Amino acid sequence: MKTLSLAAALVAIALLPLPAAAQAPADKTEAPRKLIPRYPADRDCPPVTSFFGSFDDVDGRKRDERHSGIDLGRLGDPVLAPAPGVIVAVWRADWGWGPEGALMIRHSKADLGLEYGPEFYYSEFDHLRYNEIADIRAGRRVARGETLAHVFRPGGDPDNLPEVHWEVWSIADDAATVWTRNEHHRRAWTNDTGHLVDPLYMLSLNGTIRADGSVSIQAFDPARDYRKFRGFTYVLPCPPAHNGG
What we know:
Layout: H1 4-7, E1 36-38, E2 48-50, E3 70-72, E4 78-80, E5 85-93, E6 100-108, E7 120-128, H2 130-133, E8 141-142, E9 147-150, E10 164-171, E11 178-181, E12 187-190, E13 194-197, H3 199-204, E14 214-216
């Protein structure tokens, strides 16, 4: 549900940076390339409900600013770490819908199997229950596919549709991250070296982006060996589909 104006001050949206080199930030008014998920036919993946750079919200209303991440999931779905990394912070957030929990992971190039590009990527998850994540400590190492929390609602408001907001940033200098307070007097961060990236792009690194803009969803499989895998796996579980007849 978050929009660019609430994401982080002074940082512009980026157009799908290639792994070989980070692009310069694009003009905020320029529409990013639209990517869409292609879910595995034999899996029941909770859907993406609002896309990166879109003006369309989960409930069908129009946003005032382009979306700074993707929204996805159904109430109570486990939220999984998309790759190995280190917890940067867990905090009480407020983006205008009321108090809620937020969590951020720092992934290194090595964590993502990448040889080129930015040194780090941040995964931020919003609209969580703070009480569920309060005991997760900064500096803790997390594994790909590890359950972090469960899908809740923006601000915990029962009138808001369930979603987890997943936001990805490429970060050239981790030390440039500064914590401040936003207009709702809650913790927020900025990093002048950071650029927003479509999470679906990070899911495409182990495959391809098709001509129609579709990206194969990479469902996490606990039995798989990920040592040669590049990028992210889906942050929600995709159990086998039951197509019973």
